[in-house]
Amino acid sequence: MVRLVTLGCVGLGLWLGSVSVHAQTADGLMQQMEQNQAQMPPATAEDEAISCLIEPSMQASLGTQVEGVLEQVLVDRGDSIRQGQLLARLNVGVEKAAVAYQEVKVAYGSRRVERNKMLKQQKLISPQDLDEIVTERDLSELELLERKEQLKLRHIYAPFDGVVMDRMRDPGDMIKQELIMKVARIDPLYVELVVPATQLKAFHKGEPRWIEIPLLGQSFQAHVSVIDQVVDAASGTFRVRMVLPNNKRRLAAGLRCKLKR
């Protein structure tokens, strides 16, 4: 009986020892895994490529301040435009006639002033009379300038070199202070980035940076022009703008890109 108890105790001891060894081995593996994980650098925003978007450097929605019938549209979507180029105009018959009428009044007023200057030299009219005649002539000239400005309001000119993005109206449409077309400047282009706040000191105004356009499989050099000094607290990011030359218009606005490191 004593022998059986002894054997049982020995067996139990061996089993407990085996369990203890296995437990120690498992604990060691867990500790080793934790150490390995602690040695691995944490994933940060810097490990991810910074995406960017290419946009026009300037956009404008063009219309008129006056009402009228759209008489002529000289450009269409996709056309290139030059600064000062006439793009469209409303009907101008009445305004042209008003300008012509006022030009005649100004010419008559100028002749009248010259005649009365001679009369004043001969002391046939008073200085006050001559002053009134000169004032009438001057007011006519100012009114002529006003009529010309009213005529100009019925014309739409390109505010800068660029392209027509969209055309919303056609000849014959009645325009009531509405948009007629949208234009954009694409030389240069702007590259807009949203960057993690941890990289706030990694950008410097004027420095060159390379961007990659996956759709084209090409890289281009741009220069940093604007760095926001206020970080968005919600997203932990700030914005950066770069200027991308496009004098040959090889690139189109709206393309997505990536900042090369």
UniProtKB/TrEMBL annotation:
InterPro entries named among the record's database cross-references: Beta-barrel_RND_2, BSH_CzcB-like, RND_pump_MFP
SUPFAM superfamilies referenced in this protein's UniProt entry, alphabetically: HlyD-like secretion proteins
CzcB-like barrel-sandwich hybrid domain boundaries: 64-178
Signal sequence residues: 1-23
One GO CC term on file: efflux pump complex
Annotated GO MF terms: efflux transmembrane transporter activity
Keywords on record: Signal
Any Pfam family hit: BSH_CzcB
The organism's place on the tree of life at top rank: Bacteria
Domain annotation CusB-like beta-barrel: ranges: 191-257
Cross-referenced NCBIfam families: RND_mfp (TIGR01730)
Protein family according to the UniProt entry: Belongs to the membrane fusion protein (MFP) (TC 8.A.1) family.
This protein's name: RND efflux pump membrane fusion protein barrel-sandwich domain-containing protein
Organism: Magnetococcus marinus (strain ATCC BAA-1437 / JCM 17883 / MC-1)
Phylogenetic lineage: Bacteria, Pseudomonadati, Pseudomonadota, Magnetococcia, Magnetococcales
